[in-house]
Amino acid sequence: MVRIDDSDPVVKCWLSPDELDYLERTAGAAGWEQEIAMQLMGRCGLRVSEVSYPSTEELRWSKDGDIWLFEVRGKNTKGGGPKTRDAWMPETVADDIHKYTRERKLSESDLWVDVSTPSIRRWVKEATQAIADETGNKRWKSVSSHDLRRSWATYHLVERQVDVRTMMAIGGWSDYSAIEPYLAEPTERRIGEAMLSSSLH
């Protein structure tokens, strides 16, 4: 079930990897471009305003890291103009991107998601509303585009325990204070593992 925190004026939600799969499939039913947008936010950690930046020109295989990286130009959390960074892309998403660009006959410079930021936010709302209607789980109605990035960050920081400096680099956070809020919400599975481990000692 979608985890939710409504103690502040802005409701925060966290999706599990399976819930992200569900969201991607639901969005994809309305068009492959929508599914790609969900993956860029939920699997690669892009801000909604960054989704319409990358094209295949920005995607590269790093032999040093043995990973896919792609250039993103987005928010500078220290202020000032946009900041360029290399974001990480899981191989499963890279495979989808390659299939998508081949099938759509996109050139190297064609944007993967060529729509406005408000359109992407609307896609998220339409998909989450459809899931809420289908499942009867009203929590889905509270999920926003930023919650996809929140879910990505929390999963890697808390569940997979990726070091903070790596996450700051690939997620585009300029200082610790900007990423610190994502450290605070372990999932129920992580809580159970941590507490079970501590009770055995």
TrEMBL record:
Keyword tRNA processing: no
InterPro entries, alphabetized: DNA_brk_join_enz, Integrase-like_cat_sf, Integrase_catalytic
Taxonomic path: Archaea, Methanobacteriati, Methanobacteriota, Stenosarchaea group, Halobacteria
Pfam family, one: Phage_integrase
Boundaries of every Tyr recombinase domain copy: 10-196
GO molecular function: DNA binding
Protein name: Tyr recombinase domain-containing protein
PROSITE patterns: TYR_RECOMBINASE (PS51898)
Any one of the GO BP annotations: DNA recombination
Keywords: DNA recombination
